[in-house]
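As the work plan foresaw, our protein records have gained a structure token line. A representative record is set out beneath this paragraph:
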Amino acid sequence: MSDADTTVIVGAGIAGVHAAESLRKEGYQGRIVLLDSDSQMPYDRPPLSKEWITGEMDEANILLRDPETYERLDIDLKLGVEVTAIDPVRKTIDTKDGSSYAWDKLMLATGSKLRTLSIEGDDLQGIFYLRQMADAIAMKQHMQHVKEAVIIGAGFIGAELASSLKQLGIDVTIVERSAYPMENVVGRRVSEYFLDLHRSNGVDVITNDSVTQFNGDAMVEEAVTAGGRRIPCQAVIIGVGVTPNTEVSHPQIHIDGGYTVNEYGETSVPDIYAAGDCTSWPYNGIPVHVEHWDHAVNHAKTVAKNILQPQSAPYTYTPYFWSDQHGSRFQYFGHAKEWAQTVLRGSIEANAFTYFYLDEQHIVKAAFICNQPKNALPARRMIQQQKAVDPEALADESMALKKVQRSLA
């Protein structure tokens, strides 16, 4: 690429910022334009449900980079800009304010958007979705006067928020429509562990039920469920998941569970790339979509290399995410929609264990780790090696997990 080239990145979240920064670190001398519809300086979203809400992190510390970094790297950061159209022939994008940007390479790093619910009374004050900094600021201010809160959805965001609000001394009720939250991700046994963890920490978790109505005058005062429960509350947080944000698009860009990209981050249109939460990408030959901080960073860095040197760096990442709840650290490696066998190493009762998900050939597809960080590296390597393991050895704590992993090499 020549020094006169322009790379435009749509989305200044985790993936977009790391892609822009990586382009410079890899030696790109052309112009970099980083666009985002949010008017806030680019910030880190995961802490919004944890350190930000509890006051352990302030607005300055939550920024992905300080403003001077964009100037030093000569990144043209434009905030409050909404992209309305892509023209892959003219190689331009248009924005809502009437501006047009020419590009030689275009990266879509648009992240994800919230799933929303339509519930009677959801226009009352005190009902929140948590996605952007503005949501977090409004929620944090409101929570100063809250004694009871309801969280709809027991996924990882809802669970983290429950832990954070309990830390602030707020009585929390989670309402989850399924019988076992996150069972499709972690399985029944670990799901039961999560239920016990929250209940033992004073969180009232209601399963097999859903909120159908909010009551109150101007402010929410009560949530009513389909099962007839009436839950007093002065705040409600709705966390029922996200979907890939693919609104910035063109008919020629293939979308299926996100922008469909190959192992180099290329979309179906030449010179248009995509990275992060908004994509569907090949993992072990199967298209997957994950919404993890670690994936967004590593995918963006890899795609940046391929923008500079096309098809030079295939993406060979093992999915990983973590969550902090009630003083425990959870880590998950791999990606398993289904499994033939599970193996427990450690003790669920002692709150220190690693739970492995194996296929029919005894190959480790994923691992869930609770308060055993030393198991992270060998577990990740087992997943990467894709070789059969002895389930008995995997469960035997007298044998170091590193030794089990090395025996596969």
User: Anything to note?
Assistant: The chain has ten helices and 26 strands. The chain has a mean pLDDT of 93. The first helix runs from residue 14 to 25.
